[in-house]
Amino acid sequence: MKKTILIFSIILTYSMSLFAQDCVFYYPKTKGAKLEYKSFDKKDKITGRSTQLVKDISENGGVIEALIETQSFDKKDKDLGKNEYTVKCENGVYSVDMKSFLDAATMEAYKDMNVNVTSDNLQIPSSIKVGDVLPDGKLRVMVSSEGVQVLDMSTTLSNRKVETREQITTEAGTFDCVKITYTITTKMMISVRFEVAEWFCEGVGSVKTESYSKGNLMSYTVLSAITK
Questions:
Q1: Hey, which residues does 164 pair with through a beta bridge?
Q2: Which helix (DSSP H) or strand (DSSP E) does residue 220 occupy?
Q3: Distance (Å, rounded) from C-alpha 31 to C-alpha 59?
Q4: Per-residue b/e over 112-126, b at no fewer than 16 CB within 10 Å?
Q5: In a designed cystine with 55, which of 1, 69, 170, 182 is the match (CB 3.0 to 4.6 A)?
Q6: In contact, 176 and 199? CB cutoff 8 Å
């Protein structure tokens, strides 16, 4: 009986180890790796650029976790500020903190105020296939100054769906990607809604993002360079 339990325990541990190893990580697994992006409007005019730096990364017990630092610049290359968030791969599920959707320039404007941010983790299971529907996510930012509320903004990602797998080519190279579409709804004084298509590559991250309003392209962002 004890021998049977021991064998079962070994098999279970081995299976869990394999499952953890199968976790698809959508960032370089190298500290100091940097992704550079260029953003354009619907007329292909550049509107700015940004970088994403793998500031720190750790692997422990099959869990991979990284701290990502983003920095944004306008079309004249003026620094608009930085933001940080975490990404994690655990038990076959990759997740990214929705703080990644915070606009660095907006947050810089409130740096001397009391800022309260609550956020979900957006999940991408390693076993995804075309047609899968992924969980929603929500981000809420509340800002106050001397007890007076200055901002109450919520952002919801819904209708997340795995559309297809395809190759995307940018000036940074050619990447095998999974395309995920979703709807973003932001509420402040009014509600603004638009649709997004985003292409992710294992070991790289986001390669291309397109934003639409009522089916019309509004803007897009592409990976322009990557250093590992």
A1: 179
A2: strand 216-227
A3: 12
A4: eeebeeebbbbbbbb
A5: 69
A6: no
- Domains of the chain plus CATH, in order, are 25-227 (2.40.360.20)
148-170 and 137-145 beta bridge pairing: antiparallel
- Contact indicator for 68, 87 with CB cutoff of 8 Å: yes
Q: Rounded to two decimals, what is the model's pTM?
A: 0.84
**Residue 162 near residue 180, CB atoms below 8 Å:** yes
> Over the stretch 127-177, which tens digit does the pLDDT of each residue have?
999 999 999 999 999 999 888 898 888 999 999 999 999 999 999 999 999
Distance CA 205, CA 224 (A): 13
How big is the chain, counted in residues? 228
Dig out the tokens for 102 from the structure.
């915070």
User: Which pair of structure tokens corresponds to residue 212?
Assistant: 């639409």
Burial of 128 (0-12, 13-18, 19+ CB in 10 A): middle
